Amino acid sequence: MDEEEIEKAVVAYLKKKGFKQTELAFQEEQQHSNNNNSANSQIDPDITKKILSFSQFETGPERYQEEYSKLRSWAYSSLDLYKHELLRVLYPVFIHCFMELVARGHIQEARAFFNSYREDHEMTHLRDLQKLEGVLSPSHLEEMEFAHSIRLSKVNIKMCQYSYDLLLQYLHKTESITMLGIINERINFQVSPGQPGSISDDAEVVTLVASGHDASLINQKEVHWGLLEDSLEERLEKAGGSVPDSEKLDGDPKEGEVEENKKSVEGGKQGASLKKLKKDKVGVATGKSSRTEGSTVATAPRVKPELALPAIPSEVEHSILEDLRNRVQLSNAALPSVSFYTFVNTHNGLNCASISHDGSLVAGGFSDSSLKVWDMAKLGQQTGPSFLQGETDSPTNEHVLGSSGGRRCYTLFQGHSGPVYSASFSPYGDFLLSSSSDSTIRLWSTKLNANLVCYKGHNYPVWDVQFSPVGHYFASSSHDRTARIWSIDRIQPLRIMAGHLSDVDCVQWHANCNYIATGSSDKTVRLWDVQSGECVRIFIGHRSMILSLAMSPDGRYMASGDEDGTVMMWDLSSGRCITPLVGHSSCVWSLAFSGEGSLLASGSADCTVKLWDVTTSTKAPLKDENKSGSNNRLRSLKTLPTKATPVYALRFSRRNLLFAAGAFSKSA
Amino acid sequence: MSIVPKETIEVISQSIGVNNLSPDVLPALAADVEYRIREIMQEAIKCMRHSKRTTLSTDDVDAALSLRGVEPIYGFASGDPLRFKRAAGHKDLFYIEEKDVEFKDVIEAPLPKAPLDTAVVAHWLAVEGVQPAIPENPPPEALAMPSDNRKTEYKEDGVPVDIKVPVKHVLSRELQLYYDKITELTVNRSNPLLFKEALRSLATDSGIHPLVPYFTYFVSDEVARNLNNFPLLFALMRLVWSLLQNTQIHIEPYLHQLMPSIVTCIVAKRLGNRLSDNHWELRDFSAKLVALICKRYGRVYHNLQPRVTRTLLHAFLDPTKALPQHYGAIQGLAALGPGVVRLLVLPNLEIYLQLLEPEMQLEKQKNEMKRLEAWRVYGALMSAAGLCIYERFKFLPVSLSPSTRTFLKSKWKVSTTLSSKRKASLDNMMTQPPAKRLMTDGPTRSMSANSLPVGTQGPAVGHETGVSSAPHGLQHNENMLRASGRREMAGGQGKTSVALDQAWKEDLDAARLLPSLFECFGERMFSFTPSPELSFFL
To answer: What's the whole-model pTM score?
Structure first.
């Protein structure tokens, strides 16, 4: 405790501030106090430290930048539950830092500061930022109505007690005096006891996010949501020869243009396969149904693939076309048949289930690191009707086991060293991907029953992995807050999508393979461009962690399901929520669109499968974009309860048979 | 300000040996502890969600700890979520109950059954949007919830009326077709192979529960109308049999409708109109049906079996009834088990045989048809009685044999040390002439068992407890023995009827019964006794 130093600091401060009289008075006082030292020695050591540090920190504009960046990174790494409340503080702090810098005349620093953090707030406060951008001198602050009003008023921020405690603790611990000063001066906290408010509960945030500012930059980026040209569906239509060409030009003019450019090229390329299909045409007795459903798909514009797509083996193509021809037409009047695969005796160990596109293979990922695949075609014969009894009295079950000769009736894939969290079949069922908490992804061959590749790239558990609709490529999402794109022939990721503020919990491909969607614990869904790796859409509206995603086959809509049981339907082009589908009472584990996109199926932890009508609701916004979501609420068509089986996975086969899977749980 | 009180930190620090913690550190540590706990829980909840669960388990917490690079907490691994108990008197204090486990019990406990392997089973959750009523799906009652709306509407008026909406039974098209097909097959039986398949389907198909009332009505209706159509009756009974085999359906509520039809098929005067109709077989089959029903549902319907037996007994004891009716009644009673036979048939056997005898003899009954019927009845009676005696023998303990031998040794002397009711009565049995033949055989066999004292001692020890606990019974028993022995001196016929009359008494059992039955049926009876026991009589 050096008194002289303190005195010097105080004097320096007073000088700097131009408080001449105070300075004089202070010096006078100093003379006095020199006479009786006892008074001086009573100064609290804490206070002296504060005074000293205060003089230090007051020095330069770089403090603002430094402290703000610290505060920002702290807020971003805080607990998910409180993160959104803490992030709310950042914006007012940011603009006040900026204005203070301007007010002090550090124009250069102010601009640098503004530009380096501007992106953070563009999404929600674009207009304000555009206004403030023009502030270039202290006088502007006075002149500009907006800036003036901001500087005069205090911002109200609602916070729960714990967030507030965390914030104060942080500011004191790091001695971020500048930030503390701004926060004390400019922000009026309304601390509420109990749990933090929901991200969208807060009226203020809702207005910020949804109403005035939803024309955020990111969501203005162009998204070509159309389907791939030359898709199998399209070929089928052509083979059916029923769709007038004009219908295809319904989309945006721009996309239509692309389409027309392509068409000339595609003519030659496709010739061979078309001829082959034309021969088949004679046998298409079921063509009627496929024709009508084809028309819905046809309305979607066509886009070029951004990735080099793998070639489809001709016999596979053949069988797919056959399936598409035999597809059952579903609508709100014609509901699908649902085949349910129940896992029994899982002993709480089943983490995920996946069903192949034809429903013949079922994979289960277990917490004991194993992956098991059942061939339902082989299993079909020995499936006894008495599985429920098997749970209650073992003799019957043992009998069932005995009938299979005591041998396992599944293929066991071992290789992971941690719980398997996700599995995904390739479109033709010959490969299987699994992701695990050991931070690896493994590729298995269902033909060879062997592990082919181990992809190491993530640093933390990989929550989800999904094959692209054409195979070859796949996407993964992880606890490390990234999503990655891979191709099966490379062990390094092709793209890394970073941007989510918390774990990326689920991932889904767009029908045209040019985009992926990711759902995260930060309660947002993002759409990423696969080619550029950029985020092109952010969907805000969920109130809890996103657990499942599905893309409509026409590529226009996306459904996302969350922890609370809410399903949201999004329009990809506008980035807006069409309507929330409320009905489930617990986590929505899985979502699936029917083959022609008229139905959405959702499977939940409340042991039900729900079927929703997509067509009635999405038709309306096509005609009238301004209409609010309440009028065209998606209709829940049917609720199919299971006995006690939470629904883990759903899959519409190409013929529109719905497969569902789940683990029978006695306690549920 | 933290949910972790300062005192907790103090206690923990002391427990790990840090005593001089300054009081300023406590709140800071408490705040940090709270933050860390929240962080771990946040990660644990993520792990739980990705394991597709809705209850947090210790595994999730371990996974979260390892995510954060912290060593997991050992000793809490369990497949099930932990059960917390609320501490009495505290609002928000919970603990995990830990039971003391005896080491000995754990070691001595039998190995638990190996857990069953995971399997996948498939079923139809919905067919074109409609849930089929199969056991894998929730019961239809649970599905039909919407009727609640109507109830609440009425309640709004303030009058608490509980209105029961009349149950509308909707049969799906598929089920209707199925029913039509099955009934048609049953009536026509044009294709026996197909009919067999239909019966199998009835026995195994899990989705036909809604049809059960229709089938029961069909059966009772057809039986009532077609008593002279033997093949149809038989087909109907087989249909009932198949329905009973089906474990997935719930037939109890319809039994009252089914029982009269089945009993009719047992004791009807005429079944079928042609001589070639093997109505005996139908009666046998129906008797088995009744026995099955009584066995399976007797516990639920406590008056089911008494009613059936009363009906059957009535038919059996009514001399005006035709012989086929008697036959059916006897078969029905026999199918209900040896107990029923012992209680109801044997006491009446003597008199009944006296009635039956003339019918069986060529001289007295000229009508060959009638004679044949009489012999049938005789056969049924014999097998019923025989099975009854067989059953009794089976209950005799194996230790019987050595003791028997000692009896033989002791040359008719009833030794008090070797007394139990059974052995005592065995002694009585030995008095029968055929048994004497065995006598020469006996000693040599027990000689092979070597010393005489051992032979007598062994069983004596074995029965000592029984002896000491019931000396009175023993005394009584001996008296009885003497009495019956005396009666035996008096002559055969009287004794037999006494034995049969006493058949219902517990203390009179197989050994005494056999000779009496032997009186009635002759040597044919022996085919029912198990060979080791029989060897004493031959």
So the answer is: 0.59
